[in-house]
Amino acid sequence: MKRVLQTIVILGALAGIAGASVVGFGLYNVSARQGHWPGVKWVLHTTYKQSVRLRSPAASEIPDDLADPDRVALGALHFKGACSFCHAVPGQLQSATAQSLNPGPPHVVEAVSRWEPQHMFWIVREGVKMSGMPYWPARDRDDEVWSVVAYLEAVRDMTAEDQVALTGGEPGAASCSACHGEEGRSTNSYVPRLDILKPDYIGEALEHYRNGTRRSGIMQQVALGLDDETIDRVASKFGKDVAANRVNAARQDNETQGYILANQGTKDVPACSSCHGPNRTADAPIAPSLEGQSQGFLVTQLKLWRDGKRNDGKRAEQMLKAAQDLSDKEIKILAEWYAGQ
């Protein structure tokens, strides 16, 4: 027994010396052109697959609206600008640079064939070490990650023509209008309308996205490339005089739950209109108009405020307090009411 233990110790020491020699003397060729030693690729890929399956959320956590065309469109537009350089899109070949990576990024059509939605969610959100696959820049924006997954799910049955219909045929990042609509009149429920916002508010939001104060994997990707002059130009192009667009709240049914929450509030929740509506005080800082805003966008933002995942703007403290007692039901009621104005 003693001899066996001595042999094991000696073999272990020799293995340690061999490993240290490979590292210390650079014996392992890290050239992407050469590939891995036999067996290394299998070990790494198997580790990757098992790690994803172990850590992915349960299938029950997949959003009910994953197939919503608006969610698919939003994910498609972001994927085109941020991900297609490596993974391409249906009907498009991968670039020569992408094909030269090791490990090589799979074409999007091949990639989606391997995984269920919950697995793709984990990969997009967390990224993969030593593969070139980054993690999602905004930690708390699972809603955005699910939009990308919604697109990836749709890719399974997507033709080249379907892709062009979603994002256009030109390569590169989408324009502001592609997501927010012509003149800022977005019809996508997950994207805010800009034509009912003041230029100053749009400019402030873009600055917050650019410096990371306001977290969004989608908007930070866009805003990081904007200088001050471009931000001013975009804000002036899409922003409008909100007062001219406001609906007279007195004409609305003042007995509905939405009206009461928005204009009267409750014991724990102040009236939204004190900052956001026609009744806002003259000295209130920049606050976005909510009448006619996209319903899905309002739901997302209210939940971010309530859950403490958003903390930007001049009235962040007041907004956090205002939203902290809102239930999911109340958020839905508010979003539906404002979207219907």
From TrEMBL:
Residues 70-156, 156-242, 253-341 form the Cytochrome c domain. Pfam families: Cytochrome_CBB3. GO terms for molecular function: electron transfer activity; heme binding; metal ion binding. Coiled coil: none annotated. Keywords: Electron transport, Heme, Iron, Metal-binding, Transport. Gene3D superfamilies: Cytochrome c-like domain. The keyword Ligase does not apply. InterPro entries: Cyt_c-like_dom, Cyt_c-like_dom_sf, Cytochrome_c_Oxidase_Subunit. This is Cytochrome c domain-containing protein. It comes from marine sediment metagenome.
